[in-house]
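Weekly structure sync, notes
Attendees: PL (lead), two postdocs, one rotation student
Agenda item 3: pending single-chain targets
PL asked that the sequence for the first pending target be pasted directly into the notes so everyone works from the same version. It is reproduced below exactly as submitted, 342 residues in total.
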Amino acid sequence: MPLFLILKDDIFLIMPFTITDNEKLRRLNTALLIFLTFIALVFSLIVPGIGIAGAALMPVPATLLLLGGRVRDSILCAVLSIALLAILDYILAILVIAAVIAVAFNYKDTTGHDRNIMKTVSVNFGIFFAVVLLYIILFSAIHRINYISQALGTFNSYIDSLPADPLVSAYSSLAAVDREQLDLLIKQVQDMMRMMPNILPGIGIVSFALISMLNYIFSFEIFKRYRIEIRPFKSFSDWELPWYFCWGIIFGLVLLLIPSTGGSIDRLIDIISYNLLIIFGAIYLVLGISVLTGLFKRLKLSLLWRVVIFAVLGFFTGFAVILIPIMGLIDIWANFRRLKRI
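Predicted structure, written out during the meeting:
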């Protein structure tokens, strides 16, 4: 059962809250979990990129309370920890609270029925995806605007005004580049930024999938400390995919290589191909890293050599993001790790 921390004689003690009827200790437990949820929320909002770890951790405290039979405290934890988000956007705050509670009940159902990992992760993915979709719909309906059109319009206006941005002028004076070079650089940046809305679906799907996976991993590691059992992932070095997943990346490459006809359909084909390559490229990037760690394990490489190899790959990032997914793709047939497959 879930535990709580109490401070006694300058040392932290861990005790099961079910052993005592002390209401003060129960409230301390709830307050601590509310604070942890709030910290996860702040981390997810202010830290670019790795802030998704905060989003993945956010539902865990409320889930612990729910699995401990404290339904009211679980809901209070979700509401009170996220309520301050309403200052920035009350629609988003309501949806995030609902998502945290929904994820908690998903894990309650998982522990009650011993569900498989992918079903639990898929439900969580659907919850996170629904938050974004519902936010767009509700924001558009309440404010009587087209959220997507307005966001794209604002984004494009910013791109067009980029040459006049004070930061660009400051960079120009500091870097001592001539105007022609600066204009060329600005145009390249503008072209890249105009491409971003086209690949947002792929980036969003990858992000939601990563949050869902991290949430399950965090939940498993924390739950087992409280003797709450959910199914564990296989060792990362043994991860694999069914062979037919390769069709996603193949289809994306085929669409990308289709000759341009000059029609409006070309842009749609390009968008579909880019998003497929982002989604399945990310999948095979993870699988490729799994293959590498499996090879390290099989060859019994020391930790130092593993760090050196990953550091070299990190230094040549452009090369690594192509090589590693290819390794993951080839492993379907080559079976570098000599895994037992049916």
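Discussion points:
- The radius of gyration is 24 Å.
- The first strand starts at residue 3 and ends at 8.
Action: rotation student to compare against the earlier draft before next sync.
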